[in-house]
Amino acid sequence: MEGLQRTFVISPWLLIVPVLTGVMIARRWPSMVVLFLAILLAVVVALVVQTDLVRTISGHSGVGLLASYKGMMQVCYGSTNIETGLPMLNELVHTSGMGGMMPTIWLIICAQTFGGALTATGQLQDLMKYILRAAHGTASLVASTVGTALFCNIAMADQYLSIMLSSSMFKETYRQRGYESRLLSRSCEDGATVTSVLVPWNTCGLTQSTVLGVATITYLPYCFFNILSPLTSIIVASFGWKVKRHEK
Fold first, then answer.
1. pTM for the model
2. Which long-range contacts does 9-13 make (Cβ < 8 Å, 24+ apart)?
3. Are the C-beta atoms of residues 161 and 111 closer than 8 Å to each other?
4. Could you tell me which residues come within 8 angstroms of residue 100 by beta carbon, excluding any fewer than 6 positions away?
């Protein structure tokens, strides 16, 4: 706590950012607008509350607007290393900015491109023919979606690819059968997102085991939510709970 107080200004004004971001999300503002305004708001609050720290990050000898501007650009785009006097806290507050997100962004672009290529060449439609032969009702359709997402996690070793491909494969089928898109979204999340940490060679499973220092197979038996969530999604769909269709 002393390291935090010595390095950062702990103020109630810092709560403005998460509170207003939550309000914008609750009011269902477009995601891009919320992201942009949240970043802009965080920059303003940081400049007002953490003025000295921002200027220190900039490495600029001045104390004016130039130092503040350079410091915020460094925080937003580049890598920052803040010395707090505590090694664990230094690692916690170390950031890579937007530059550190580029591997994830490239991965999403590749996933979109791969999914688009499968769709354009007709390979996706051929795969769907075999999968949808057994998907006659709601439960079987959800089970097919969850199973496909889980298989993609295992075969492609990445959560983003699993989400993108499974949602692309089943999007048209859900629309034709009149289901709301939220059912597809929920099924993909339960099949791809929550199970990715259970696959040792998946990027999520690898990250968790590396950060925690515990092998995936060791913590897997305790991941009750991750194991039960796909099964729960299928069971809920079989009873028709929270399953809505578009009005014709």
1. 0.58
2. 9/49, 9/50, 9/53, 11/49, 13/45, 13/48, 13/49
3. yes
4. 79
Residue 33's H or E segment, with its range, is helix 31-49
Closest CA to 196 of 246, 230, 169: 230
b/e for 144-156, b at 16 or more Cβ within 10 A?
Answer: bbbbbbbebbeeb
Letter for the amino acid at 182?
R
Residues 211-239 have pLDDT tens digits of 777 888 898 999 999 999 999 988 888 88
Q: Buried b vs exposed e over 229-240: b needs ≥16 C-beta within 10 Å?
A: bbeebbebbeee
> How many other C-beta atoms lie within 10 A of the C-beta of residue 221?
8
In this structure, the number of other CB atoms found within 10 A of the CB of residue 203 comes to 20
